[in-house]
Each structure stands twice: as C-alpha cells, then as structure tokens.
Amino acid sequence: MKPSDFSRSARYLNRELSWIEFNQRVLDEAFDESNPLLERVKFFCITGSNLDEFFEVRVAGLKQQIESSILESSLDGRTATQTFRDLIKRTHRMVDDHYRCWREHLAPSLATEGFRFHRVETLSAEDRAWAEKFYLTKVRPVLTPLAIDPAHPFPQVLNKSLNLIVRLVIERGGELEHRLAIVQVPRSLPRLIALPRPEGAHDYLFLGQIIGHFLADIFPGTRIEGYWHFRVTRNGELYIDEGDTDNLLVAVEKELRNRRRGDAVRLEIDHTAPADLRAQLMEILNLTEDDLYLIDGPISPSQVSYLVAGDHSPELRDPPFLGRTAPALRGRDDIFAVLRERDVLLHHPYESYETVVHFLNQAADDPHVLAIKQTLYRTGGDRRIIGALMRAAEKGKQVAAVVELKARFDEANNIQWARELEEAGVHVAYGIVGYKVHAKLCLVVRQEEDGIRRYLHTGTGNYNPSTSRLYTDLSFLTSRPDFGEDAATLFNLLTGFSQFQKMNKFIVAPFEFHERILAAIRRETEHACKQKPARIVAKMNALVDGEVIDALYEASQAGVKVDLVVRGICCLRPGLAGLSENIRVRSIVDRFLEHSRLFYFENDGQSDFLIGSGDWMYRNFLNRIEVAAPIEDPALRKRLLDEVIGLQLADNVKARLLQPDGSYIRAPRAEDEKATRSQFGFIEIAKNSRVDLAKPAGKSHIRTLKTKKQVVRKR
C-alpha cells in the first residue's frame, strides 16, 4: 500500500487505548510468577493507582468533551463518544483482570507465605478483644456517621475516599423505617491493621471491615441490615485562567479545594451490593452503568500497599540495591573540581542521585558560590533539595526557584515549598503564564580565581531524591560556558520579562523543540535517500504528536531504521508494509519505572545525542517549558550508545514489542539465546564499575568567563 492509502484509523493508535495497554503491561508484572511475590503486590497496587489517575484526568476529560458542543476527533479519527465507548469496555475488562489477579494469584500466594487476612468475627477470643480495644481507642473517636434523610442530604463524598454505605432499620412511633447512612473510613489510619504477633508473622484486618463489624456501636438502637464498601472517583483537573488572576498561588490553592468535590466519573462498590442500592447511588452521583465497577476484592488496591512497606520478608523481594557513586566522582569530595576537568553523566538509579544532592549542598555551603537558580516540578517530601536552597539564601547567596504550582497532584506540596522558600529569602517565581515549567535545571554561579564560572545540572528526572531510587533517569553535569550561558538566559526568561533568545546548545520548548526534532528526523530521511548512514533511536515515556509520527513514517519509507523505546502511550503503528516496516517499538516495564528521554540521530556519521525533559507529545512541544541538551563528550556519547541504548534494545526478558494492531507481545528469544534483562544489566555494570582515573580527552572547552580585568585561562 501507498502511504496515502492509509486512513487515519489505520495510521494511528488511539491515545487512551494505548495508555490502557501500558497499564496492562504493569498488571502483567503482577501476574508474572518469575517476579518475587511482594514485587508482584507492588505492581498490583501501581495498576490501581494508575487507573485512579486515568479516571480523574483522561476519562473525566472525555466526559466533558462529550457534554460540550465541540466536535473534535482524536488523532486516530474517533469522536469522544466512540473513544469513551471503546475505553469503557476495555477498562471493565482490565478491572476484572486486576481483581482476578488478587483473588486467584496474589492472595493465595500470600497465604502460602504466611500473610493472612482475617475478619473480626472469625478471630479467636483474644484477638477479638484486641480488635475491639483498637476500635474503641483508635477508630471510634474519629468516625462520623452521616445519616441520609430529608434533614440530612447525601453527603459530599470526597474523591477516592473509602466509605461504607449502611442499610439500617429504626423504629419510630411503632413503625419500622428503612434508612441509609454513610461512614467514611478515616484517612488518618492505615487501611490494613496488623494484629499483634511475634516478629515474622503477618496477620491483618482491613480497617473498613473493623468499622463494619462495630457499626451497631455508632448506630445504637437500630438494626443493621448490611453494609458495603464503595468509592467515588471525581474529576481531578484544575481549571485556572492564569491571565485572569492576580496571584497564581492563591488561585491554585482555591482550585485544589474544588478538586475534592469535582464531578463524579466512577463508582466502585462491593460486588455484593444490592442492585437497587447501586442504582440509587448512581442516580445521586449522576452516573450510568458505564461508570459502575463491581469489585470483588479490596476496593482501592492501595489498601494492600502496606504489605510492601518496611524491610520484612527480603526473600519475597528483589535483591536490595543501592546506587553507586559514579566512577568519575569516587574519592572526589569537590564536585566543582571534577566538573572543571570533565563532563559527568549519571544513569539513575544505578548511579546514585546523592551526587545531585551533593552538588546542590556544596553550592549552598561554598562561600565562593554567588548564586543558585533552580526549577522545581515534583520535589516530594525529601527536604534536602529545598533545605539547601533555603540555607543558601540564609547565607546571603542570590537564590531563585521556579516552582511549578500546576504539577498535577503535587500542587499542594509545591504550594507549601513555595511559601517556605519565600520565607527563607529565596526569590520564587512560577514561570511563564500559560506554560508549565517542566524543564530540569540547576545553575550554580561561582566566583573563582580567574573569573566567574557557571556549573550546571540538567536531566530527565525531577529533583526528588525519593523517586530517584525508583525511576530510571539521566543527569548531566557540566561547566561548559555555552551551556551555562544558555541556562542563565533561560532563567532570565522564566523569572523576568524577555523574549526568547536562540540558545547556543539547548533546544527549548515551546519555542523550537518541535521544529528541531522534526528537522532532525527529516535530515535522517534525506541521508537515507542519498544512501548515507541514517538511523534514529529514541527513548521516551510517550509518543503522541501526529507531525512527528508522520515524519517517522516518511523516514521509514526512505529506509531509515527507527528503534523506539516508549514506556507508555504510543500512537504510532509500527511494522505496516508501505508505511512503517522499518520502525520497531518496544516498551520495558520492570523493577524501576523507565523515565529517561534520550534521542539519537546518526546524521551521516556525525551523530547527535540529546537528553531532555520532554516527551514527543503536543503538550511537551507547545504547552510546556522543556529543555533538551546535547551530549558532546565522545566518551559519554559512546556510553549512551553502547551501554544505555544497546542494553535496552537487547532486552528480551522484560521488553514487549508493539504490534500494528496496538497489542504487545513479549520480545522473542531463541532457545539458545542468552536472556538479557536490561535493568539487571545496568545494576551489574554499576556494581562492577571502577574508578576512572584517566585524564578525559578534549577538555579544552573548560574555561572561565572573561571579565573586564581578567584574562580567560584555558585548561
């Protein structure tokens, strides 16, 4: 077929359905008996958490699109209604598989390993006494029973809160009246309660079941007919007109309160709940059968995440691993001295993120550092990054932080950090109106003997030491003047008033990232047409942009070999004759969440390497501030090509290959072929790496900035 013969539905995969297939790959890891048991439980919980966010954002958005008068089809030609119908069928099937995994696989395996889940009524007398005391002292004081009658309308059930709906009978004036009530399971207590046992035993009660057992205590004088757990998922998107607000922080904070009471988009309820009760709830919540999910298992899988917490049962987990210090930095306390000699590339979590923390802390404490400028998107609860910035400001350094208040589901956390930073004397900005600041940059300005020198960290991951142990990312540290100048220019744009200035090295969205990626792909196409070396390898979290996909199709038709490692959503259809037969797409779901973005273009032997913060999606190209930085050091480029890319493309254990119809299959492996699991390979590389004491080649680029009375000294 000719490329023009392919319809839109034949050229592209649906974004929402592609995401569901990604979450299926996560769930597959929970089913996979080759994974340690508690790792399988972890993947079970992640699948549920992913679905929660998907309903809060994507399904909620589809519902709003259907209700609006705007008729707009998706990249693959579906209307919002068509997408919703197909999506609902697929999500119901996934939820069934999700809880079947718990009932038929995880729960029996946990029981075999001594993890037992009890009901109060089946406990021994001693354990029942303990459970009653726990209820009376810990649970009862924080319960609030909510009656439903003409004087008590149906309460505003909070987003994703676990609740009990109770049917009870009360006698009034000699007549029996049937009533409903709601009891919210307290968020302040763990959902899974460990019974008192010797170390090594694992016996639990679900908090909701404890409350259910003692319902008569909080509804005295009534007869309890039954209770059922349920949960409501609400629209989680924030709606803020940045151009019509004087204070973005206050506007985001106000909208966060509305999120907890947004429109309902999903009702999960115990599968034993009577049909008339389910219908009543759906009517109250303005939902339909499409939005109803009958759950045979623990509603909200996060309830069982408690099993994974702590350091018990090491035999049921992956072997422990702690990231190593990169060879170039071992035995070197002064990171600035290292960066004056060479660039440093870190592959997290195999190489420790503590290097980045150390970089910032050294900058905060070094009396020669004049200024620190940093972007903050998701920082988590670890105070060391924020603490270093505050400490630097308190020591009199010029410190600026660009805090993204609209980082989805981290808004409240970032508001808190923004206020603390301001109180400590940090200049806090919120970026550019209309754009999320997703770029990862930390610029340190230092006064040295021969002038001012800039040191830079940029990378693919957030400044979050906690998630850095769970996500795979790349960090790049340098003191190259061109990179420092670009970072300074970009920070001036983010904190002040200025027009975008073309950069020396950086490629910045929304100003040029899209067109530069398209140009690089088309350049490979031209090289292939002229029989010159041409190849594209790109690793990212999502590929959605139609123009980029079309450019990749053209490259494939010209003979360019294209290898894509796309963790999540991919709207490109690989392997279609006449369109994409030279494109292969793989996804890797394993112990760590693949999060790095790396782009390689062969360019007739003059290869280009970029690492960056943005995926190939419309939002990253045109609605966010993103940075892609070239890797120029030959040794680092070789490492990226041979090690990082090489191992991922060789993975035949955890890699799945995308098929033209949107499904995925395990990467095939011949009987005599060696098993290659890329993440375990990276762990072994990190364990066996040695200190590289050799002088790096080509370090003449390191120099200080020239000032009026100082002479540039090249090294």
Which helices and strands occur, and which strands form pairs?
Elements: H1 8-11, H2 15-31, H3 37-67, H4 80-112, E1 115-118, H5 125-139, E2 146-148, E3 162-172, E4 175-184, E5 192-194, E6 202-206, H6 207-213, H7 215-218, E7 222-234, H8 248-259, E8 264-270, H9 275-285, E9 292-295, H10 335-341, E10 344-348, H11 354-365, E11 369-376, H12 383-394, E12 398-403, H13 411-423, E13 427-429, E14 436-437, E15 441-448, E16 451-459, E17 471-478, H14 481-495, E18 507-509, H15 513-529, E19 535-540, H16 546-557, E20 561-566, E21 583-588, E22 593-594, E23 598-601, E24 608-612, H17 618-622, E25 624-630, H18 634-650, E26 655-658, E27 664-666, H19 678-688
Parallel strand pairs: 1-6, 8-9, 11-12, 12-13, 14-25, 17-22, 19-20, 20-21
Antiparallel strand pairs: 2-4, 3-4, 3-7, 5-6, 7-8, 10-17, 11-15, 15-16, 16-17, 18-25, 19-23, 21-26, 23-24, 24-25, 26-27
Helix pairs in contact: 2-3, 2-4, 3-4, 11-12, 15-16, 18-19
What are the defining features of this structure?
Methane Monooxygenase Hydroxylase, Chain G, domain 1, Endonuclease, Chain A, 10-stranded mixed beta sheet, 8-stranded mixed beta sheet, 19 helices, 36% helix, disordered C terminus
